[in-house]
Amino acid sequence: MSISGAIAAARYEARPRQISAGIKRLALVYLWITIASIAIVVSDPAPYDALILGAVLVLSVAGLVAFPRGLALYLLLWTIVIAFGFIASTQAVVIGNPLSHMGITLYLALSSIVIAGFVADRPDETMRLIMSAYLFSAMIAAIAALIGYFSLAPGAYDLFTEFGRARGTFKDANVFGAFLVPALVYAFNSVMIRGTLRAWPALLAMPLLLFGTLLTFSRGAWINLVVALALYAFFTFGTAGTNRQRLKLIIAMVLAACLALGVLAAANSIPEVAELMGERSSFEQSYDVGPEGRFGGQLKAIGLILSHPLGLGALEFHEHYHHEDVHEVYLSMFLNAGWIGGMAYLVLVWLTIGLGLRSVVADRGGDGISAVVAASFIAMAFEGIVIDTDHWRHFFLLMALVWGMALAAQTRERLASEP
Description:
By secondary structure, the chain is mostly helical.
């Protein structure tokens, strides 16, 4: 660390704190429990929804949230999306459902803004706290999925699977699969940074998370995982400080590939799994094609977007124009919030990707958390091309983490430049 950087860090750490250390610790424990509950989504509202609202208050009162200037831009973009979403609701046949949908978006956005401020306050400590809770939550969901899929407990199959696909503690297998990806990348990074002996819990978690993702039979989640791991490897290789670190990454990736092939082979040895996997491996299912299929619905959505600059209102497409949702989050946001709200959402996603890439470069030689979060967010944003992610709780969490890390870096740079 440079002398100026050390001075900035000292100033950053030396900011006055008026709340007692005990209250802060309780607030951090509360947040850990909140993040650890994010996988329990068997019904709406979920426990996380109540806990995160409490976390917003607790973190703010405990003085654990920073409000750097860049956070105003994050708030502004979400305000535009949501405001025009409410305006679009006036175009709906029945206004209640769109208003309710946008209300949920509002609470998710507000909680995301506070989490971003929390990470910006002390990024090193907070990222470890949040990601450890996330990994724990993903492990619980994956274990539940495996117990259910293989009927290891009475009634578990009906509770944790749907249509022959593992969904764990989620309502939908596609969301469950996507949720596991950041945890899997984080576990891999932990083994890379800390070594197999010190990171043995993460090493044990990896095959369970991989098997859980596989048994969702979610094409989107599979693509998400491949993209996230590929980006993580690219980021880590490019920012490694030495060739020895690059060689270590290559060896780890080869071993991870062997692990993945082993899990895949084990899964394919089960006839029911092999049959469904072969069916789901096709990227053009019968329900995708034709005017009433997924792609036909998306073409229909484009036509409606062009003819409705204010949008239709959330959920209206499925209710009155097509038999299912758009399954493309960017088209959905234009339908939900009109041209201006949809463009603001696109700007928000692209800006988040840019900030994530900047954090990766700034974290050269660091602990790799920036690479984990940036790769996971980009992969999830990419999956949004084939599914609606606008109310995925972990999507909002990842976005908050990216912004928090970027804003923390900006705060330190500003402090370093002050006399």
